[in-house]
Specification:
- Chain A: Keywords: Cell membrane, Membrane, Transmembrane, Transmembrane helix, Transport.
- The complex is a heterodimer of chains A (306) and B (538).
- Chain A is an all-alpha fold and 306 residues long.
- Chain A has helices at residues 2-29, 34-39, 45-55, 61-73, 87-122, 127-141, 144-158, 174-200, 203-210, 215-243, 247-252, 258-267, 271-299.
- Chain A has two domains: 2-73, no CATH class; 87-299, MetI-like (MetI-like fold), CATH 1.10.3720.
- In chain A, α5 (87-122) runs antiparallel to α6.
- Chain B is an alpha+beta fold.
- Helices cover 30% and strands 22% of the residues of chain B.
- In chain B, β4 (93-98) and β5 form a beta hairpin.
- Chain B is globular and about 75 Å long.
- Chain B starts with a helix and ends with a strand.
- The chains are: A mainly alpha (306), B alpha+beta (538).
- At the A-B interface, α2, α3, α5, α7 and α12 of A face α1, α6 and α13 of B.
Chain lengths: 306, 538
């Protein structure tokens, strides 16, 4: 296991290096000059040139990259061109909110999705199956902003149970989590259903049923556990996406997470923040994927990492 | 054993989430729960007012940004300010005098004015603040050819310019040029934005990046403007600016009573809010306009007849009614009414010259050589159709305007291809002249804005250079006599009207909705809230 983890660690470093090169090139290829954003509409040519020199933007691209990667390796992602705040601080200030939102959404999505998917598989081609698949389809296809506004209107405006927007602890994350959880649950339900349908047909399931195993234990103990591998992969991917910032949900609910930070940074061509965020998101994706692989071996004893 | 490992991992993830929850919760504890609550401070009604705004300022340090609005401007008290008619009146300065040659402006500070830290506002302090501004502010061009600042005594100082710089006083009304507390600059350096201290009616209490800025009433404030009844500290405890980018969410927060002020009401909600008995609406005209810019470097626009034909083909009423739901005023001349230098005479002449006239537009196009028409109804010159690309930002209102313009120009046989671009892309590429047309806007408090847009080598959006115009605008910059200066701007505007390098379209109405407040007013020139008389209704 230790060897496997070391191997994964080196793969992670190479991936991050690749991401850093890609994102660096992309930021410099898209039109838009950060200096013009900083200095405003009526900046003089002299001021523009001075600031470019000060920020090192007049240096060759490769030198700018080495300077960036050198600092990044020391944990310094630079300072925002716009706010002057350290990018690491900006990300760390906002990440806890995105992290909570991702975890709560995933819990909602996974619990609802797995239950719906299992019922749909066990009761295949019945009204329960159709109902569950219809709900999951709505979850997948309804736009996030629409669900968000619907939930706000009903549960925060008409019935003032939850706050309409802003972050004020756990309570303020319930509606955003349901919004994201609904979409996540749709995907998970569909995956669980198809995976369960395959497992249900297996000989060992028939054997267990013939032995008179309790239905609940049969479905959840024997069936679901074996059907979970692809579902866990999906959950891992969804978790990575959620952690990378749910831009629309954060915008509608005015949550100061990393999704909204990304939008602001891109609009103002705030290069250090964009670079820092993309690197951070890539890191999160890689770590989540690693965790998923480790969870595989916990769920399925046949999977072993040597 | 192995079966238990999955639930253990799951609970670990949940514990991590809850731990993060409690940590983040602590930093954001002081939220907006007290919105609208009443305070008990002696002599004032107290309480907390919540304002919702779309955009968060980059920083509250006005010497580190090019964006000043209600959320950061009230921390600062400028040396002078505009009254409600656009005249410059004393603010932090008791008086100012301009030397005969116009090169020296002497300011005398009001006695007893204090910074938020409790330190006195002194001439030396003002000098230090300006030195930082000149040294590093992105807007340092606003002081013009300033050579030195001479401290005469504790309350008096002089600005020495190498040549007269007439826009200085207008520029000095803005927060950008307001003195910062030198002690705070020294203590916090580049971190000043998190600990801003100046002499404004509100001081910084708490900044939560991405979420809100809380400002509290500065109890020692004594600089209330002549147009306010209250000359002292604000009549409430604090004001929370919450940043909510989504229009629907902002409107629901307001209608629910969670916020007392909603800035930048979207046009499609104005009628609904006007009908609400609990809501009052304040409207002011913007200090700039939205225009259809032509890239005058392009050959097609070097023909005056083509530029005028485009101007004549545009009908502003449908744009205002359809795209802006009436929340704007059509404009034909270069300056809007809120900028000193606006002239009714110029506006009248421009409105007459460019009144919607399709026949005249078509005939000008014919004169310019567009005599043919292709199958799509587009006019052609030497077989080449008059097809133009219009750059427009992602803002939905601007896109609606572009669609109206597209239809209107089609009527005279001009094809307009709409190209939606990011704001940052237009800012970066239009100075290089990569566009043909753009839908853009400007805003400022002084007619010198025309120099910024049409001065020598400064025309970055419409690329229009006219020596006569440049010479008038340069003369206006150094003319300290206000009447003479305004006369020069009238001449400059007439050139722009006749030459038509752009098509001014409309002046937006800044619409603010408010409730549960008394004494609420918006400054007609600056468009910012006048906090002095505002109180929560009991």
């Amino acid at each position: 296991m230790t060897r496997y983890l070391l191997k994964r660690f080196f793969t992670m470093l190479i991936t991050l290096l690749g991401v850093s090169i890609l994102v660096f090139l992309m930021i410099h290829l898209i039109p838009g000059d950060p200096v013009l954003n900083i200095l405003g509409e009526f900046a003089t040519e002299e001021a523009i040139n001075n600031l470019k020199a000060e920020l090192g933007l007049n240096q060759p691209l490769y030198m700018q990259y080495f300077s960036f990667i050198g600092n990044a390796l020391q944990g310094d992602l630079g300072q925002s061109y716009i706010t002057n705040l350290y990018v690491v601080d900006e990300i760390m200030n906002r990440f806890p909110i995105t992290f909570q939102l991702a975890v709560y959404s995933l819990i909602i999505g996974a619990v609802v999705g797995i239950i719906m998917g299992t019922i749909a598989a066990v009761k295949q081609n019945t009204i329960f199956d159709q109902l569950a698949m219809m709900v999951s389809l709505i979850g997948i296809s309804a736009p996030g902003f629409w669900i968000a506004l619907f939930l706000i209107f009903v549960f925060a405006y008409q019935l003032p149970i939850f706050p309409i927007s802003g972050y004020d602890g756990f309570y303020s994350l319930i509606l955003p989590s349901i919004t994201l959880g609904l979409a996540t649950s749709g995907n998970i339900a569909r995956m669980t259903r198809s995976s369960m349908l395959e497992v249900i047909k297996q000989d060992y399931m028939r054997t267990a049923e013939a032995k008179g195993v309790n239905v609940f234990r049969l479905i959840f103990g024997h069936g679901l556990q074996n059907a979970l591998i692809p579902v866990i992969t999906l959950i891992g991917l969804q978790f990575g996406h959620l952690l990378a910032g749910a831009v629309v949900t954060e915008t509608v609910f005015a949550l100061p997470g990393i999704g909204s930070l990304a939008i602001e940074a891109i609009a103002t061509r705030d290069m250090p923040t964009i670079q820092g965020l993309v690197m951070f998101m890539a890191f999160i994706f890689i770590v989540v994927n690693l965790l998923v692989d480790i969870i595989y071996s916990a769920v399925d004893p046949r999977i072993k990492y040597e | 054993m192995k079966k238990k490992r999955f639930p253990v991992l799951l609970s670990l993830v949940m514990m991590l989430a809850l731990a993060a929850c409690s940590n983040a919760g602590q930093t954001a504890k002081e939220g907006t729960k007290d919105s609208g609550s009443e305070g008990d401070a002696a002599g004032k009604a107290g309480g907390t007012i919540t304002v919702t705004s779309v955009r968060e300022p980059d920083t509250v340090d006005v010497q580190r940004t090019t964006w000043v609005d209600d959320a950061n401007t009230h921390i600062y008290e400028p040396l002078v300010k505009f009254d409600e008619d656009g005249n410059i009146i004393p603010a932090l300065a008791e008086k100012y005098e301009i030397s005969e040659d116009g090169k020296v402006i002497t300011f005398t500070l009001k006695e007893g004015s204090k910074f938020h830290s409790g330190a006195n506002v002194t001439a030396e302090g003002v000098k230090k603040s300006f030195e930082r501004f000149i040294d590093s502010a992105p807007t340092n061009y606003m002081v013009g050819p300033l050579e030195e600042i001479v401290v005469v005594d504790e309350r008096t100082f002089e600005f020495h310019f190498s040549e007269p710089f007439a826009p200085f006083l207008s520029n000095a009304t803005t927060a950008y040029l307001a003195p910062l507390d030198p002690a705070a600059i020294e203590e916090h350096g580049d971190e000043f934005g998190n600990h801003a201290s100046s002499a404004g009616i509100l001081n910084v209490k708490e900044i939560k990046r991405g979420s809100s800025i809380t400002l509290e009433s500065f109890d020692e404030y004594k600089l209330g403007a002549p147009y306010s009844q209250n000359k002292g500290a604000a009549g409430f405890d604090e004001v929370v600016f919450r940043f909510i980018p989504d229009d629907d969410t902002r409107i629901l927060e307001f209608k629910r009573g969670n916020s007392q002020v909603m800035l930048s009401v979207p046009p499609n909600y104005i009628k609904e809010l006007e009908a609400d008995p609990n809501t009052e609406i304040a409207k002011t005209l913007a200090n700039g306009h939205v225009y259809l810019g032509m890239n005058n470097k392009k050959k097609v626009f070097q023909d005056l007849r083509v530029r005028q034909a485009i101007a004549l083909a545009i009908d502003r009423e449908p744009i205002v009614d359809f795209a802006l739901e009436g929340a704007a005023q059509p404009i034909f001349g270069p300056l809007p009414p809120a900028i000193p230098g606006y002239s009714e005479e110029v506006e009248g002449a421009a409105a007459k010259m460019y009144a919607h006239d399709l026949e005249k537009s078509r005939s000008l196009l014919k004169e310019a050589g567009y005599t043919g028409t292709n199958d799509a109804g587009i006019v052609t010159k030497e077989g080449k159709p008059l097809s133009l690309e219009l750059w427009v930002t992602q803002e939905p209102t601007m896109q609606r305007i572009a669609q109206v313009l597209q239809n209107q120009l089609k009527e005279v046989g001009i094809e307009l291809k709409i190209s939606v671009q990011e704001d940052a892309t237009i800012r970066a590429q239009s100075p290089e002249g990569k566009h043909e047309m753009l839908l853009w806007t400007y805003g400022w408090y002084d007619a010198d804005i025309l120099h910024s847009m049409f001065g020598r080598d400064l025309s970055t959006r419409v690329h229009y250079q006219n020596d006569e115009l440049i010479s008038i605008l340069e003369k206006a910059r150094i003319t300290m006599n206000q009447d003479e200066r305004m006369e020069l701007y009238k001449q400059a505007q007439m050139i722009l009207v006749e030459e038509s390098p752009w098509v001014p379209l409309f002046v937006r109405e800044n619409v603010t909705a408010y409730r549960d407040l008394e004494g609420f007013k918006i400054h007609p020139i600056t468009g910012t809230i006048i906090w002095s008389d505002v109180k929560l209704k009991k």
